[in-house]
Amino acid sequence: MNQPDVPNEIFDRHRRRHFRDRAFDRAGGKDFIGQIMADEILERLSLVKRDFTKCLLVGQAGHSLASALKPLGIESVFADAGFSAARSLSGIQCDEDRLPFADHSFDLIINVATLDSVNDLPGALVLSRRILKPDGLFLAAFIGAESLTTLKSILLQAEGDRVASHIHPQIDIRTAGDLMARAGLALPVIDSDGLRLRYGTFDKLISDIRDIGGGNILKDRVRPLPFEVYRQAKREFADRADDDGKTSEFFELIYLSGWAPHPDQPAPARRGSGTVSLKDVLKKN
C-alpha cells in the first residue's frame, strides 16, 4: 500500500507515478537516454571482479539488464515507481525512498534514471545501503544538474522568474558525492558523461524527456505552461538551429558507485585526492 505524501515534500508522488506510467506506455522501458545509462552501467559492472547472486533493478530502463544478468547466475528483482511497469514486468511498485525489502536482501543494486526525482534522496540511498548485504555493490545513473541548458535558457527567456515553477531542482555531481558518503556507502565514486543530442523540433526534445519519465512533478507547481509560452519556446528553439535545421541539447549523465560497508574493504582515500574514473576503480574490485 502506498504511504501518503508528506506535506514538505518537493515532488508530487502521485504525479510522478503517473509520469512513470506514461513513460512506460510510450517507450516500454526502452527509452533512448535510459538505455544509454543502462548500457554504460552494464559495461562498468563487467569490470567488477566479483560474483553476485541477487540484484535489485530499479527503474524501467534498468529492467532491460535482467536478460544480461541471468546468464551470469544473477537473480533479478524489478521495482519501479509506476504501476504499469511493475505490473507488466512482474515487478514491485514502490518509491525509491520507500523500498519494501528486508535488510541484507541483495548483493547488487542497480538504479537507472530515477534518483533525480526522488523526494527523500538521502533516505533512498540509506535504504539502498541497508538492503545490501555487507560488501554489496550499489550502481546508479541519473540525469544531472548540468542537463537541458538549451531548454532552461529558452524557458527563462519566455517566462522570466516564473520558469522556476516548471523546472524542478536537480542534483549536481558534488552533491551526489556528499549524499553517497552521508548514506554510509563505502568507497563512493562519482563521475559523469556528457551527452549532446541534436533535435529537428522542440516537440522531439519534449518527447524524449517524457519517454524517460520527465515532466513537471513539482508539488507546488502554479499552473501548466501557457500555450502561448509553449509556442514561443518552439519558435526560439527553431531559431537556435544550426544550418542543418537541428538544435543542440546537452544531457549530463551522472554515475554513482558505492559498497555496503565490510571490515575487509580497503580504507578510503583522502577526500579530494581521487584522480581516476569510476571505470578504473571498478577494474580493481
Which descriptors apply to this entry?
285 residues; 7 strands; 7-stranded mixed β-sheet; Rossmann fold; single chain; alpha/beta; 11 helices
Give structural notes.
By secondary structure, the chain is of the alpha/beta class. It has a domain of 179 residues: Rossmann fold (3-Layer(aba) Sandwich). Helix content is 37%, strand content 21%. The chain has eleven helices and seven strands. A seven-stranded mixed beta sheet has the order 3-2-1-4-5-7-6, with helices on both faces. Strand 4, helix 6 and strand 5 form a beta-alpha-beta unit. Helix 7 packs across helix 10. The longest helix has 15 residues. The protein starts with 12 loop residues before the first helix and ends with a helix. 40% of the residues are buried. The model has no long low-confidence stretch (mean pLDDT 91).
User: What is the CATH topology descriptor of the domain at 13-145 and 171-195 and 252-261 and 273-283?
Assistant: Rossmann fold
Class inferred from helices and paired strands: alpha/beta
Mean pLDDT: 91
Helix-strand string: HHEHHEHEEHEHHEHHEH
Strand order of the largest sheet: 3-2-1-4-5-7-6
The CATH architecture assignment of the domain at 13-145 and 171-195 and 252-261 and 273-283 turns out to be: 3-Layer(aba) Sandwich
| Main sheet characteristics | 7 strands, mixed
Query: What is the level 1 CATH name of the domain at 13-145 and 171-195 and 252-261 and 273-283?
Result: Alpha Beta
Proportion in helices: 25-40%
At the fourth CATH level, what is the homologous superfamily of the domain at 13-145 and 171-195 and 252-261 and 273-283?
Vaccinia Virus protein VP39
Number of alpha- plus pi-helical segments: 11
Which of globular, elongated, flat, extended, rod-shaped describes the shape?
globular
How far apart the termini lie comes to 38 Å
The poorly predicted ranges are none
